[in-house]
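In the design runs reported in the main text, the only information available to the sequence generator was the tokenized backbone. The following block is the verbatim input for one such run; it is reproduced so that readers can re-run the procedure and compare outputs position by position.
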């Protein structure tokens, strides 16, 4: 509580937090504004039958905006997709990699390319949604979702959804620049957390009716605290490689000679592997909703959440994307070259290739632990629902995002407090840092 009271004593930090909360309120307000030309009740009935499809995944990241087809229905996913595509293209296109290494000016250009890519992806998705909505029906009476189909509706939907995504992207950048925390991550965080009150109300109603025993609920609460603590522990986990810098004489001054470390995160890939894996697994169910074919239906049933085949394939895909995305985003050869350039070396190893091979070996081993950790958290909801009949969804990608964003935001608030000599949230850890 003393840390929270210290926030009010720092005008700049207080302004940043208030600005962040106001921007998130604007985002949540926009999620309630519907796109013109849609029968809202028919659309909600349609989405009620799409919980296990890719629409359900997108709706989770949009905070329920897709279910209502609001102006923010596409959410921030087009921006994330564009950023991932740019990241992957850096491996294929040498010019992008060179641009990235040019420093702040090059990164500004890459950010601009990401914005252009976001608009293009949002426009393509908007066209797909507009055309798909015209063919959607819901209920026994097969009520059409679109009131007046045609090119006027399609153009209006594309313009509305693309503008909404561009506005969310701007909100995220404003939060990052003038607020606290990473704006894009906080928008996803707000969309996921917005569904928690309804889940809590539903849980309390089940306890009142006797469908959930109070003892079971207490045990589940304890398990939730343990799981969250485990996620925090692993997300902060690092494998530190000792690095020694040689002494250099520049003019009359001597530089270097100090010893530091190279931190390698246990979960380098973050939440990208479960997002990719979920999208691939939900693809058969999404296609089965539009294509009536026996093979497609069989694949959708086999890959439906809660089954053993689904969990095995899910874990295998998470392992694949953990190693793939880590290999794309972290290059041991570049790290070894940079160490050699600045006079750094790992004790006992020669600079260059031996150092890169050593870093790659360690990264491969800790990525295995990270993949096991991500798989365990993502399979947890299926186990709770199947074995203990838990009526709510706990775990998976949503929990990883919520805990990760909360940790990052808290760290930024702590840095503001510590620069002005105020105690942070984690006093013991901060006192060790000071010593």
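Verbatim output:
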């Amino acid at each position: 509580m003393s840390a929270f009271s210290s926030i009010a004593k720092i005008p700049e930090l207080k302004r940043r937090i208030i600005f962040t909360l106001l921007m998130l309120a604007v985002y949540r307000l926009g999620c309630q504004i519907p796109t013109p030309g849609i029968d809202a009740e028919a659309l909600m009935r349609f989405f009620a039958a799409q919980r296990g499809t890719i629409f359900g995944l997108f709706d989770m990241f949009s905070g329920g905006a897709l279910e209502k087809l609001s102006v923010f229905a596409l959410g921030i996913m087009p921006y994330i997709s564009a950023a991932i595509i740019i990241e992957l293209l850096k491996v294929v296109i040498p010019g992008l990699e060179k641009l990235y290494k040019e420093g702040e000016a090059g990164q500004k250009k890459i950010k601009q390319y990401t914005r252009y890519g976001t608009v293009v992806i949002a426009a393509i998705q908007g066209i797909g949604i507009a055309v798909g909505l015209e063919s959607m029906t819901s209920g026994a009476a097969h009520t059409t979702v679109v009131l007046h189909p045609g090119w006027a509706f399609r153009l209006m939907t594309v313009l509305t959804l693309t503008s909404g995504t561009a506005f969310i992207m701007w909100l995220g950048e404003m939060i990052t620049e003038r607020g606290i925390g990473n704006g894009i991550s906080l928008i996803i965080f707000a969309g996921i957390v917005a569904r928690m009150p309804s889940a809590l109300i539903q849980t309390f109603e089940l306890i009142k009716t006797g469908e959930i025993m109070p003892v079971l609920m207490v045990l589940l609460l304890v398990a939730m605290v343990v799981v969250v603590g485990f996620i925090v522990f692993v997300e902060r986990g690092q494998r530190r490689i000792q690095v020694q810098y040689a002494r250099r004489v520049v003019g009359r001054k001597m530089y270097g000679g100090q010893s530091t470390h190279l931190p390698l995160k246990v979960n380098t890939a973050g939440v990208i592997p479960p997002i990719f894996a979920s999208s691939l697994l939900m693809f058969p169910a999404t296609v089965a909703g539009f294509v009536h074919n026996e093979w497609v239906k069989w694949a959708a049933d086999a890959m439906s959440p809660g089954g053993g085949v689904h969990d095995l394939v899910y874990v295998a895909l998470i392992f694949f994307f953990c190693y793939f995305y880590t290999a794309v985003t972290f290059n041991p050869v570049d790290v070894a070259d940079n160490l050699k350039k600045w006079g750094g070396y790992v004790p006992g190893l020669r600079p260059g290739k031996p150092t890169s091979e050593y870093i790659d070996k360690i990264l491969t081993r800790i990525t295995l632990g990270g993949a096991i950790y991500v798989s365990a958290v993502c399979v947890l909801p299926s186990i709770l629902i199947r074995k203990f009949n838990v009526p709510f969804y706990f775990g998976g990608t949503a929990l990883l995002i919520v805990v990760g964003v909360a940790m990052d935001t808290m760290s930024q608030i702590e840095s503001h407090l510590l620069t002005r000599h105020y105690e942070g949230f984690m006093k013991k850890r901060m006192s060790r840092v000071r010593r």
